[in-house]
Amino acid sequence: MPDKSHVGRRYTAPGQRIAPESARAVAQAIAGEAAVREPDAVPPTFAAVYCLGPTLAKLFGDSEVGMDLAGLIHGEQSFEWPEPVRPGDVVDATAEITSVETRGGMTIVRLAMEAIRPADKAVVCRGTSLMIIRASA
Amino acid sequence: MSAPAASEVVVGDTVAPFSKRVTQEQINAYADASGDHNPIHLEPDFARSVGLPGTIAHGMLEMGILAEAIASWAGGNANLLSLSCRFSKPLLPGDTIICTGTVVSVDDSGVATLDVAASSDRGDRVLTNGRAIVRLSR
């Protein structure tokens, strides 16, 4: 189970390609036919796929931290997009554990994440996540 | 509907409520598209085994619909500069999500901040503490 000793751990997921077909599939799953209005746009929350998802996968694979996936809830999310990403871009995603708190039997893990496009060193996404691990029943 | 120009937007303006029914098929499509196959979104028996009423929509699908609502008001995806929210209550398949937004500030450079939220047609406050920053057209 995560504890304060894990604060500062960083997870890197380099080389995330913004696959056009994947961005389009997510846009259609979110917006349906409305997604065709901007066929070449990457939906903003596609950051879940190129930034949040791959770094979380690394965190979940960190057996020393031992995230309990069965009780895991995504509590809060923020994203900012300083520069737009485009289909075909490749970005490097990183995330860091910024705090771990235990409250009423729940463990609350905060993460900060970032995706950088190495081609022009642009930060295309910054975000924070709050993950809640409920006590096992 | 064309995006409002910065000169026309004032504090208190609201985004027309944006409603969308979310089906299990749409949740399945989002799981396939995003690669998030957590069984709480896909398998009713598993979802019930962890104390949920059944499968629930991905929080990021809900946030994606909220982003779509705010970005389309602002004239396109590139005009959404930031978005944050709390996933307060689950959205269940068959629910309609209703996204709303209210302008709380507009600065001289045409950047507006909105309080945003989403509720379900069953009255649950699904996404709360939401905040969006958008670039308005000049």
Give the DSSP E fraction of chain A (strand runs of 2 or more residues). Answer: 35-45%
- Structural class call of chain B reads alpha+beta
- Describe the global form of chain A: globular
CATH class category label of chain B: Alpha Beta
CA radius of gyration of chain B is 16 Å
Got a strand count of chain A? 5
Biggest interface, CB < 8 A: A-B, 35 and 35 residues
Looking at this structure, what is the CATH superfamily of chain A? Hotdog Thioesterase
- As a percent range, the share of helical residues of chain B equals 10-25%
The overall average pLDDT of chain A, rounded, is: 94
* CATH fold description of chain B: Thiol Ester Dehydrase, Chain A
How does this structure look, described?
The complex is a heterodimer of chains A (137) and B (138). Chain A has 137 residues and is an alpha+beta fold. Helix content of chain A is 19%, strand content 40%. In chain A, strands 1-3-4-5-2 form a five-stranded antiparallel β-sheet. Chain A starts with 9 loop residues before the first strand and ends with a strand. Chain B is an alpha+beta fold. At the A-B interface, helix 1, helix 2 and strand 2 of A face helix 1, helix 3, strand 2 and strand 5 of B. Strand 2 of chain A pairs antiparallel with strand 2 of chain B.
List the helices and strands and how they pair.
The complex is a heterodimer of chains A (137) and B (138).
Chain A: E1 10-17, H1 20-31, H2 47-60, E2 72-80, E3 90-103, E4 106-117, E5 122-133
Antiparallel strand pairs in A: 1-3, 2-5, 3-4, 4-5
Chain B: E1 14-21, H1 24-34, H2 44-49, H3 59-74, E2 80-87, E3 96-106, E4 111-120, E5 125-135
Antiparallel strand pairs in B: 1-3, 2-5, 3-4, 4-5
